[in-house]
Every structure is written in C-alpha cells, then in structure tokens.
Specification:
The chain is mainly beta and about 350 residues long. The protein is built from 3 helices and 26 strands. A hairpin with a 3-residue loop joins strand 23 and strand 24. The protein starts with a helix and ends with a helix.
Length: about 350
C-alpha cells in the first residue's frame, strides 16, 4: 500500500490520469501531432481461452512516458506494475514499442485496452480490443428417453462458447438423411419405431473441433410376427417349428395346439425362447403331432399370434448302400419301386414265347 501511495504522489501518476481523461473524452481515437500519430496500437487481438495475449504499442523517441490501461485500471506505467494480477507482465519497453502480456486469458479479460503516452506537448492514447474465443461446450442435454410409438419427443441440447456455437441434431441411422434440426431443440411428433436409436447433438463455433454428445431414444411397440412358416416332417424324424417376432420390449412367447398350451419339459418336446424368436422342437414326430399350432407373442403393449401347420411328408428315396441307408417308411411305395425294377426282366422272359 505504501508503494502505491508513493506512486500516486508522483508526477507520472497525474500524467497517467490525464491520459485516462483523454481516453474518455476521445473514445480511444489517437491524437495527432504534426504529421505523425502516436501512439500506434496493434489491431484487435483474438486469442483462445487459456492462451496468452500480447498487446503492443508502437512509439518513437518523442515519447517520454508510457502506460497500459484496462478500462479505468492502470496495468503498467513505464516499468512499474500497478495491477495485482500475476498473469499480467511487461515484456517490452523500448524506444520503438511498449508491450505487455496477459497469460491464461479468460472471458472476463475481453474488452478495450488503452496505450497512453506522454510527449513534449500533451498525452495521447490508442486503443486495442482483446477478443477471447471459447471452444464450444455442451452444458445440458436430454437424458435417455423411452416412449411408446406414436408419442411426441422433445430433445434439448444447450451449449456455450464464444462466439455462440451452432447446434445441429441428426439421427444416427443408415436410413437418416442430413440434419434433423439446426437448433437447440429437436421436436418429433408421432414417433415411429424406425425413428428409434441414437440422436447426436453437435456444437460448433470454429474455435475448436465440434463437441458431440448422444441421446438414446427407445420406441416401444407391440409384437409383430415377421416369420412363421408351415413345416413338413416325416414320421419318426425331428421336426422344428419357429416363430419370429419383433417388439420393444422383447416379446414373450407361448405355444398352443388347439386350446392346449405346450410347456417345456413335456415328453418329446422342447420349447426354446429367445429375444426375437421361439422354437418348438419335436425329437420324434408321431402321427399325433401333426396338426395346427399357434404361436402367441406378447408384451405389455399388446399381443399377436400366428398359425403354423406341422404336416406329414414322405422321406426321400435313396439307393441302397448297405447298412445305415435311409429307407422310405411307406411300404407301398417300396413295392411299387420293386415292380418297376422287375418289369424289364418279365418282358425279356415273355418275348420268345411270341
């Protein structure tokens, strides 16, 4: 404090005040003396948040005293530091230029800075404006959402930065084309199951790489059976009936024959349920197993069913190849095949008689 009071009593202090008065009267426009304009400050300085900003004031040998001011505060007067901010330092005080540096610049450092000088005649000032750019940052974004098909969705993405960032929304989907919105808010009315998935918010202001965040949107809908085919199986063979269904949440499955529900563990049967399909396996199909089966798929939003027929087919006839060959289970078919095989021999036997 004593040092500061001593500075206030010095002639330089009152010279600086005169320079500040000139600043407020002339709004930072340099005062001309003869053909030259002194001091001459550099152009506006633009830096990113966290970087260092160097402010230079170009002078000549007619200048006797110099100072840097920030609004109404004196930062440096000659070689003497007047501010308490440790980030501000003097880096040059020569016959040609007078410069200070502000380290670790933040947004509150933005604004006008004034170089004030004293010549033989009177004080002169020049102003430079410090612009602080801030990379984009997403400070608020919607949480994951689960909604029933047909509902309305509103997504929010709030970002900060200098200059203000541009916000864009897009659907992360192979079927999506371009951006859905170029605003902080994305509104979807009557959402469909095809519109489920992840939505990406991007904030960009060309100061740094865009910042990206994603929101998952789950669209719930009742089951839809997409595949259920009739199946033919010979008696005694293994048979499989399969029912595929899409649903969110995943569907539960039940199997019925007529009005009787089929359960896991019944003799000769296996029921296998997965997220998107159910499989009914017969290990040894009998005549009683043939008929109409119903696959029921359901979740809390609804249910649907499909009819699947297990019908009898004949095994494929294969040439005899010794033990282990597959034979047709139909004896009548075997006799017919045998008769066709004997026909050429009967004709050869009967021809000489004619």
């Amino acid at each position: 404090m004593t040092g500061l009071l001593a500075k206030m009593r010095s002639p330089l202090f009152w010279t600086i005040l005169a320079g500040m008065a000139s600043l407020f009267l002339f709004q930072g426009v340099p005062v001309r003396s003869g053909e030259a304009t002194f001091p001459k400050a550099m152009d506006n300085v633009t830096v990113r948040q966290g970087e260092s900003a160097t402010l230079r004031c170009f002078v000549d040998n007619r200048v006797t005293r110099v100072a840097w001011l920030n609004r109404s505060s004196i930062l440096y007067a000659g070689n003497d530091k007047w501010c308490l901010d440790p980030r501000v330092e003097l880096i040059a005080n020569t016959k040609t230029h007078y410069a200070i540096r502000i380290n670790d610049v933040d947004v509150y450092d933005e604004g006008p800075y004034t170089c004030s000088v004293q010549t033989d005649n009177h004080p002169k000032t020049s102003r430079v404006h410090l612009i602080v750019q801030v990379p984009p940052k997403i400070v608020e974004i919607s949480s994951e959402i689960s909604i029933n098909e047909g509902g309305n969705v509103s997504l929010t993405c709030i970002a900060t930065g200098r200059p203000d960032p541009t916000i864009t929304w897009r659907h992360i989907s192979p079927k999506a084309v371009g951006f859905l919105s170029e605003d902080e808010y994305l509104e979807i009315s009557g959402i469909t199951r095809e519109q489920s998935g992840e939505y990406e918010c991007s904030a960009s202001n060309d100061v740094a790489t865009p910042v990206v965040r994603r929101v998952k949107v789950t669209v719930n809908y009742p089951p839809y059976i997409s595949d259920a085919k009739n199946t033919g199986v010979p008696v005694g063979q293994k048979g499989i009936l399969q029912c595929e269904a899409s649903a969110v949440p995943s569907a539960e499955f039940q199997w019925y024959k007529d009005d009787k529900r089929l359960l896991e563990g019944q003799k000769g049967l296996k029921v296998e349920n997965k997220a998107f399909f159910s499989r009914l396996t017969f290990f040894n199909v009998s005549e009683q197993d043939y008929g109409n089966y119903t696959c029921v798929a359901y979740n809390q939003l609804g249910n649907t069913n499909a009819s699947i027929i297990l019908y009898e087919t004949t095994a494929i006839q294969t040439p005899w190849k010794g033990p282990g060959a597959v034979h047709d289970g139909n004896n009548g078919g075997s006799r017919r095949a045998g008769c066709v095989w004997l026909l050429p021999f009967l004709l050869l036997h009967l021809l000489p008689k004619f």
